[in-house]
């Protein structure tokens, strides 16, 4: 565990005036965040970070990517995640690190040449840690956006129970591969949850049906059939019907209806038919 004279000077100075520096640091960051985080919470956060930086300087010197700064990086990841979830900007997040430079500048710049050199070295260290903070913030924002997109995708593909044994998926918007997968998963799960044998896929809200959309629908129907359910596609408007014919798309033996009401009547008729057949064959047995 060795470090140069500059880092040793920093350790000595940061240790000797730790209370003063951390208090100024908390005030500076608190002002930049305009009171959106309590000073108590901010104080705990920055005091832990300050202590970790001191430990890192003592172990790895000014090498911010060294093993001695592992705890600092861990704390910065946590800080970045919290700021991203709380809605702070990247600048407001990075200032939590960069503000320490402003706190230390008067103490080091007014010293001797060794102090000035130490401050410049420490500034580069904080720049590197600030960049790491922004990178961590960006990753968290990407995760949040991805999670929100998944949630919106699920909300846009609800499966509802219309009747005993009948579930429906009212689709709105464009149907792509990712959304088809969600539709399929939710529909198959609903068939189990509601013990349904009839499923209606309503495309009234789908703006256009092309070959790709038709393939997605067929995959969903086949998956439902493998679960023992019959599927009806409803909401085929005149314009969509003309497009399907023009493209030569074949739905095979899949029942199609113009409205959801027609599809529901078809499904109820199928359930009644199956009930009668069950009674008839049950009587024979």
Could you walk me through the main structural features you see in this protein, from its secondary elements to its overall organization?
The protein has 285 residues and is of the alpha/beta class. Helix content is 69%, strand content 9%. The chain has ten helices and five strands. Strands 1-2-3-4-5 form a five-stranded mixed sheet, sandwiched between helices. Helix 8 links the parallel strand 3 (198-205) and strand 4 (230-234). Helix 3 (39-60) runs antiparallel to helix 4 (70-86), helix 4 crosses helix 5 (90-109) and helix 4 crosses helix 6. The longest helix has 43 residues, at 113-155. It is rod-shaped and about 100 Å long. It starts with a helix and ends with a helix.
Please tag this protein with its features.
285 residues, five-stranded mixed β-sheet, 69% helix, single chain, alpha/beta
Assign a percent range to the helix content. Answer: 55-70%
Radius of gyration: 32 Å
Order of strands in the sheet with most strands: 1-2-3-4-5
Strand content: 5-15%
Q: Give the helix tally.
A: 10
| Estimated structural class | alpha/beta
List how many beta strands DSSP finds: 5
Report the order of strands and helices. Answer: HHHHHHEEHEHEHEH
Name the shape in a single word.
rod-shaped
Distance N to C terminus: 86 Å
The whole-number mean of residue pLDDT values reads 86
Q: Biggest β-sheet: count, sense, barrel?
A: 5 strands, mixed
Low-confidence stretches: none
């Amino acid at each position: 565990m060795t470090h140069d004279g500059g880092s040793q000077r920093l350790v000595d100075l940061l240790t000797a005036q730790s209370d003063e520096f951390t208090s100024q640091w908390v005030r500076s960051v608190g002002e930049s965040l305009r009171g959106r985080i309590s000073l108590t919470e901010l104080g705990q956060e920055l005091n832990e970070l300050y202590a970790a930086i001191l430990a890192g300087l003592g172990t790895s010197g000014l090498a911010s990517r060294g093993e001695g700064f592992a705890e600092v990086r861990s704390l910065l990841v946590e800080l970045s995640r919290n700021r991203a979830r709380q809605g702070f900007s990247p600048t407001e997040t990075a200032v939590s690190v960069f503000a320490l430079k402003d706190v230390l500048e008067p103490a080091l710049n007014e010293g001797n040449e060794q102090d000035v050199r130490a401050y410049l070295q420490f500034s580069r260290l904080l720049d590197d840690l600030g960049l790491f903070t922004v990178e961590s913030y960006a990753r968290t924002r990407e995760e949040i956006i991805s999670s929100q997109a998944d949630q919106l995708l699920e909300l846009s593909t609800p499966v509802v129970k219309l009747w005993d044994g009948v579930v429906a998926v009212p689709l709105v918007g464009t149907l792509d591969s990712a959304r088809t997968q969600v539709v399929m998963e939710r529909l198959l799960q609903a068939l189990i949850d509601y013990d349904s044998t009839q499923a209606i896929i309503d495309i009234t809200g789908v703006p256009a049906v092309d070959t790709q959309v038709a393939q997605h629908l067929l995959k969903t129907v086949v998956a439902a059939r493998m679960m023992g359910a019959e599927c009806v596609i409803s909401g085929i408007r005149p314009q969509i019907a003309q497009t399907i014919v023009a493209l030569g798309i074949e739905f095979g033996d899949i029942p199609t209806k113009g409205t959801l009401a027609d599809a529901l009547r078809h499904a109820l008729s199928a359930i009644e038919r199956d009930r009668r057949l069950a009674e008839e064959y049950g009587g024979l047995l």
